Amino acid sequence: xxxxxxxLILISALFHAxxxxxxxxxxxxxxxxxxxxxxxxxxxxxxxxxxxxGQVRAAPGILLPLAGAAFFxxxxxxxxxxxxxxxxxxxxxxxxxxxxxxxxxxxxxxxGERLAAAGFAGIGLILAGAYVIQFKSASWSALAxxxxxxxxxVAFALAAAFFYSVGAVFDKAGIAHTDxxxxxxxxxxxxxxxxxxxxxxxxxxxxxxxRSHWRGAAGMALILxxxxxxxxxxxxxxxxxxxxxxxxxxxxxxxxxxxxxxxxRVGGLxxxxxxxxxxxxxxxxxxx
Length: 288
What we know:
288 residues
């Protein structure tokens, strides 16, 4: 994996952890995500709208992966918001980032990707770290901690991970048709429309939320845009399975945010698990 791509995906992971922390600690979580996408779409349209429309006309094959990626990523955001409604950040966030358990399968089936053995080893370490980071103690009984309370929040989180894994395959297929900036813009616009329709159709008080929280949504839009663009540029030059796996170090960033921002009590076990995930990234970088 190229160093530049690795750095871009790591930066994206940091911003990804930040926006999840924000979503966890606000009301109207899905409304915030939907409105932030509307803000991004409105801000980018004057600069990219005409060019993007021209590329769609020139390559109509982009429409299917675009629709698929937007739909499943919108469902992913719905799952994330649902999980944070009653679940803790330290439990829900790692679960929502378990997509690499599925992405290699989708990549092999639909994109013809082949992963080296070292790549699978790195992915395995990242997934193991994401699992252990949920333990509450260093004991055999802790093996069941992530699944001991299988409530709605956990179900939402696991569904989010599945939706993201499917969306990631459409994402990789679509970005092959154009440049990362244009693709990101088209995806943002489609997600803004879909998520707004979801919010209105499910009577989430989207209109009232927009009137009272548009300033906060503008700030959220900047965080999301930074996460989206850095990841898409990295995804342009690496295989989807590696990209989504490297991004799993957002769990480490989540631990750091929990310690220094929200003053959460995080033991040495969780920090060790996060470092195991970094080890997986090193293997992918060195041997993948």
